[in-house]
Amino acid sequence: MNFYADERVALFIDGANLYAAARALGFDIDYKRLLTLFQGKGRLIRAFYYTALAEDQEYSPLRPLIDWLDYNGYTMVTKPLKEFTDATGRRKLKGNMDIELAIDVMELTPHLDHIVLFSGDGDFRRLVAATQRKGVRVSVVSTMRSQPPMVADELRRQADTFVELADLMPQIARDGPRPERRREERGPDDDDWRETA
């Protein structure tokens, strides 16, 4: 990864997309290790995590992850899942966070030098191009090593740098050695959570 020590960096994590990519590669992400990795790459301004939640469920498997991330240095952006009926009469859930992510990127672009987008969604190609026109470098983190690849070719080509998620695995996988954490960084239920949607 190509970072400069003095550049202002922000992470934009499409939660469902990153979870699917890591799952396709067969590992779980240790979000504390991920944050620590990028804190060492430059001046980390923000780390956003985007996910949709089912409102009507008494308990969501995502709730412990969201609470842990919110308490441990991530800015959480959530919205309720929308329920709809498709043409065949089946009930489906939809929770696309693309607009929220795009708005946050455009609002923060004047204050950043480098954006790291954790998503393989080709819909973000135009966002990446618009960000680059404002003089901000964009790295995309996803994977080509899954079957099928989790990153859209047009997004990978548009990015200044494509970072293969499998190459980050030794540094961010839950099973690897964990960095020491200071007492003030620990939450009340100090476990490392992962998205299990």
Secondary structure blueprint with pairings:
Layout (H helix, E strand, L loop, with lengths): L7 E7 H11 L5 H9 L3 E11 L9 H9 L3 E6 L1 E4 L5 E4 L3 H11 L5 E5 L6 H9 L3 E6 L10 H6 L2 E4 H8 L25
Parallel strand pairs: 1-2, 1-6, 2-3, 6-7, 7-8
Antiparallel strand pairs: 4-5
Fourth-tier CATH superfamily name of the domain at 10-41 and 95-176:
5'-nuclease
- How far do the termini sit from each other? 29 Å
Low-confidence stretches: 176-197
Query: What fold name goes in the CATH topology slot of the domain at 10-41 and 95-176?
Result: Rossmann fold
Give a count of the beta strands, DSSP E runs of length 2 or more: 8
Radius of gyration (Å)? 17 Å
Helix content: 25-40%
Order of helices and strands: EHHEHEEEHEHEHEH
Major sheet strand order? 3-2-1-6-7-8
Query: Largest sheet, described in full?
Result: 6 strands, parallel
The residue-averaged pLDDT reads 86
Structural class: alpha/beta
β-strand percent reads 15-25%
Number of helices: 7
The first-level CATH class name of the domain at 10-41 and 95-176? Alpha Beta
Please name the CATH architecture of the domain at 10-41 and 95-176.
3-Layer(aba) Sandwich
The best one-word shape is globular
